[in-house]
Amino acid sequence: GTAFAPMPFAAISFLSSSYVIYHLLFQESQKRKRLYHRLVLAMNFALLFMSVSNFWGAMAVPEGSPNYAGAMGTMETCTAQGFMNMMLAMTVATYYASLVLQAFLGIRNNFNQEKYRWIEIPIHLIAYCIPCAYVIVIAATENINPGGSGCFYSKAPRGCESDPDIMCQRGLDLGYFEYIIGLSQMFLYFVFPPSVIMAVHYWMKELEKERSRRRSGRGMTIVRDEARKKMMRSVYLQIAIYLSSFWFTFMLTLIEISYKILTRETA
Prior knowledge:
The protein contains 6 helices and 2 strands. Strands 1-2 form a two-stranded antiparallel sheet. The longest helix has 44 residues.
């Protein structure tokens, strides 16, 4: 049934991430000198473990749970799987956003990596520490329960928060914290990356105006301007690909999660 639907995609994601990790660690290790490839490597480690969590899926749901074929876990395995899934979903999203950010800073600093390599450690800290803190609160309040194709943010039994006739046995009311989670995810997924792309577009327009004013230059000046323009367009295309890839992969899931958190519906 639908409980097993994520497994093929999780397996493909696992293999793809494994290949990228192997490629950057052993085949093309010199690429790790660039910030971009180090961020890609970190993102694929997170994707690797998220793929494992997604493949685990319904098997982690407590045995005997209704509507979950293949459920063979306990409440502890459900909490562990949900914790991994929720945390890594935000971690991967942060790394996607960081690729957009580093591309913008590359353009802004004329591709001199030394001027913006300082963002690397803050990116790793934000990618893991903030999602971990969020999910610890959710787990501590017993809000990780069977939901979707495995375990996720939900109360138990399912639908209890929207049905006055059903008493919730697990899942404390998080109040405004639910809105903080939902809005922060919406900002991370739908506000920050497009904002950076618009900033890049504006910056490229400004550089094009500057280049037009210096069009009377000759020789190496023109060659450098043309090379820089080509590089900026290439990076701008990469940014658009990052964002399109991310939205194509996670858009429907993220809309559903954000909506349910903000409206306090069951997952």
